[in-house]
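A favour between colleagues. Tell me how you read the following sequence-structure pair.

===
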Amino acid sequence: MWLSLLLLLLLPGPLPVAGMEDAAFPHLGESSQPPPRACPPRCSCPRVDTVDCDGLDLRVFPDNITRAAQHLSLQNNQLQELPYNELSRLSGLRTLNLHNNLISSEGLPDEAFESLTQLQHIYVAHNKLSVAPQFLPRSLRVADLAANQVMEIFPLTFGEKPALRSVYLHNNQLSNAGLPPDAFRGSEAVTTLSLSNNRFSYLPPSLPPSLERLHLQNNLISKVPRGALSRQTQLRELYLQHNQLTDSGLDATTFSKLHSLEYLDLSHNQLTTVPAGLPRTLAILHLGRNRIRQVEAARLHGARGLRYLLLQHNQLGSSGLPAGALRPLRGLHTLHLYGNGLDRVPLALPRRLRALVLPHNHVATLGARDLAATPGLMELNLAYNRLTSARVHHRAFRRLRTLRSLDLAGNQLTRLPMGLPTGLHTLRLQRNQLRMLEPEPLAGLDQLKELSLAHNRLRVGDIGPGTWHELQALQMLDLSHNELSFVPPDLPEALEELHLEGNRIGHVGPEAFLSTPRLRALFLRANRLHMTSIAAEAFLGLPNLRVVDTAGNPEQVLIQLPPTTPRGPRAGGP
């Protein structure tokens, strides 16, 4: 459907009302009622040059299509063939949309498009073509043959098309043998080529030098032949993920000529080292889910403009990222090291780093200077490591004055870390072993908006007086799945969302929410509440309350909100 909308958007000017052209100059002495415009049965013709027969379950190519048609859409039908005699009449066609039919190569004669000398856009995706058309018009600009069964392309399918810009061939059965060396000869304006989800075993040579985006993900590529990318100096995005690339399938010249390359995705391959010869223009390098054991600084010297480096799910271990290995990347913004078996935070990281993502490693210690080299961090994710309270130094976060998000979920902390940055907006501490909350670690966090303490071992008596006092901006507090027996008192005034599900709460008193007048959503499901457990006055003074979830308690709990409270969705039940 989006293709039909695109066709209309491509047409300049407002859509005229049917018959308007004839009505503007009625013949003298004749009826002023314009004659009906010729249009195939059940189709719509919103303007004189547009015929829309989308989704009509057509099995036969419609007749009575006006010769003036420039834009014909037949997508989402049951067509199996295109009759040459019908197409040959439509020599003025600029757009032909055959998306999602049953057209086979046998139903598409070789001469089908010979007379369509003005055709610019052809969409034949989601059909049953086994080979591409042997000839497409020289005037073509966009060709979409994706999601067929195409095994072979011919020299004049896409060759000799000086205006051709975009070719989509993904989700077919193309191999290197099915793409001739001269497939794009004479088509020097192609900027987008999608060959993903095919059967290529090596990167095809002789691709258009004008390419800006090349999609080759989800193939069987194990090698990029030497010089295969030597002419693509305008290439900005290269997608090679989900292939079978090894170190021997690349060399130092593979990417060195790509002087415009900004995005390179080599994830889900079999690389053991960072590729050599990376260009200076590269901004995003995705190497996740390979077998990389070592990151060498020498391999990154050329890519000094790198901003995002993704190395998640490799095999770096304790020695795979030595101190200073990333020092050449002075402008690095984000570093992903998820799931690498690292036992400590890498040392001597680039000073301008803004996001460090290290979950699911083996980090057990956070020393006083482990993060000193990255004072500009705004996001730090150390979730699901092996941190204990005894091995997190009280000055570990001292220099992180710009930190806004800290994720320490899934560790073995028994108390809140000391010295948390006062500029924090988000603090995640769920799934630890917290047994107490004290005011001191939370002192000064007057910008904190979200605090997650779910899945710990907290009881109301373990929450010290004044714990919430300085959390003046806190809007979301998650205390679910702890051991609370009632709603903690003196919660922050700015609170809008409170999670208390999965505790042991058996009673909600009339003053439970006096300190939280802005509350919008309250979750009390899976506690020990009964019909008479909640005081009728508990929700007075909460004019913004929209959600009260009490499902999963021993008895169905009916909540009566004050009459002044706007009604919203409420959950309840046994």
